[in-house]
Structure formats: C-alpha cells, structure tokens
Amino acid sequence: MTKRLQVVMGDDEYAEIEEFAERRGESVPQWVRAALREARAQQPRQTQARKLAALRKALTYEFPSGDIEQVLDETERGYRS
C-alpha cells in the first residue's frame, strides 16, 4: 500500500528543489523520495540506551577468546566436521 505525503513550502524553496531534481534528470517527487530515503538511512536504527542495554547484556555472557588465528582455525575445523 502506498501513502501520499503533502508538504507545504514557499515558492523559493520549491524552485530550489525543482533545480536539484532537474540537474539529476528527475521529477520533483522522484528527487524528494530519494532525499527522504537518504535522510532515513542516516538515522540511527536504535536509540543509544537500547544499544547500551544490548551491550551490557552481551557482556554478561562468556564468549570464546584467545589468539585470533586459533579461533579462526577452530571455526574452520567446526565447519568441516
């Protein structure tokens, strides 16, 4: 399902967006959708508090550790068996 988004802006701002779109060979709606996708991609997916909570929880577990070559070797052997 698609939704329509209406944005009200001044003539000068709209003219500037028209120029940007024209330079890229796009319509204004195409340019706006691309700009919104780019802006959305730059937003953090999780809040800082959620990330810290996940990290704190992960630190309560015991993970294998050791020399990286040893860990990689053991991992490879696990794949082969």
UniProtKB/TrEMBL annotation:
Q: Where is the Ribbon-helix-helix protein CopG domain?
A: 3-42
Q: From which domain of life does this come?
A: Bacteria
Q: Name one GO biological process term.
A: regulation of DNA-templated transcription
Q: Which Pfam families match?
A: RHH_1
User: What InterPro entries does the annotation carry?
Assistant: CopG, Ribbon_hlx_hlx
Name this polypeptide is given: Ribbon-helix-helix protein CopG domain-containing protein
